Amino acid sequence: MKTKLFFLFSLLSFCLSSQNTYDLTWANDGSDDNQQITIEIGDTVRWTWGSGTHNLRATSGTESFNSGYHAGPGYVFSYTFNQVGSTNYVCDPHAGNMNGTVTVTSTAGVTENKVLRFDIYPNPALDELSIQLPQGMNKATVSVFDYLGRLIKTQSLSSDNAKLDVSFLSSGLYLISINADGKIGTQRFIKK
Questions:
Q1: pLDDT tier at 109 (50, 70, 90 boundaries)?
Q2: Where exactly are the structural domains of the chain?
Q3: Contact criterion met (CB below 8 Å) for 133 and 156
Q4: Which end of the chain is less enclosed by CB atoms within 10 A, N or C?
């Protein structure tokens, strides 16, 4: 039993740490002008404030985030990127010195034209997960996997705005994979 628990814990730790976190500074000293970083889907960028009061807000692109205003030094804001594309960001009071772009690429082995972009909410979910597919995409297959990669559920979707019952799942981390029109997309979600 101890061996099985150790194996499960080790595997979970590996799965949760397989995504990367990138650290950037966020200060009004000229060093954070035109920050450029390229990451993969599921990676996190973590900005650490220098002295002064700053915000960090997406201005255009595929993702949307806003840290709100916080005084440094030492405040940390992080964001996990889940969509392929570029997102521009800025500190509103110091836009000339504090700005940049995060470019998100698809995971290795999957070309961009084969990636299905979709939204899920709420995340974490209690009883039901809403799935928003691209408009006009009415036929898809959704699969839910546990953190060990075991298939838990498969369901056909017949509209671009569908609901998925997750009430029967135990609390924890899951992977949702959707296949439609020769494209595939994957996201993580948490069951409360």
A1: low
A2: 18-105, 116-191
A3: no
A4: N
Backbone φ, ψ for residue 126 (5° rounding): -100, -60
Residue 8 scores a pLDDT above 90: no
The domain made up of 18-105 has a fold known as: Immunoglobulin-like (2.60.40)
For residue 84, give both structure tokens.
């392929």
Q: What kind of fold does domain 116-191 have according to CATH?
A: Immunoglobulin-like (2.60.40)
Residue carrying structure tokens 């990636």? 115
Q: Is the pLDDT higher at 182 or at 112?
A: 182
Ramachandran area for residue 87 (φ above 0: left; ψ -120 to 50: alpha; else beta):
beta
Which runs of consecutive H residues, i.e. helices, occur in the chain? Answer: 2-17
Report how far residue 110's alpha carbon sits from residue 107's, in angstroms, rounded to the nearest whole number: 6
CB 50 within 8 A of CB 26: yes
More confident residue, 11 or 34: 34
Single pTM value for the model = 0.51
Distance between the two ends of the chain, CA-based, in angstroms?
26
Contact 120, 55 (CB under 8 A): no
Instruction: Indicate the SS3 state at residue 103.
Output: strand
User: What per-residue string of b and e applies to 39-50 under the rule 16 or more CB within 10 Å gives b?
Assistant: bebbbebebbbb
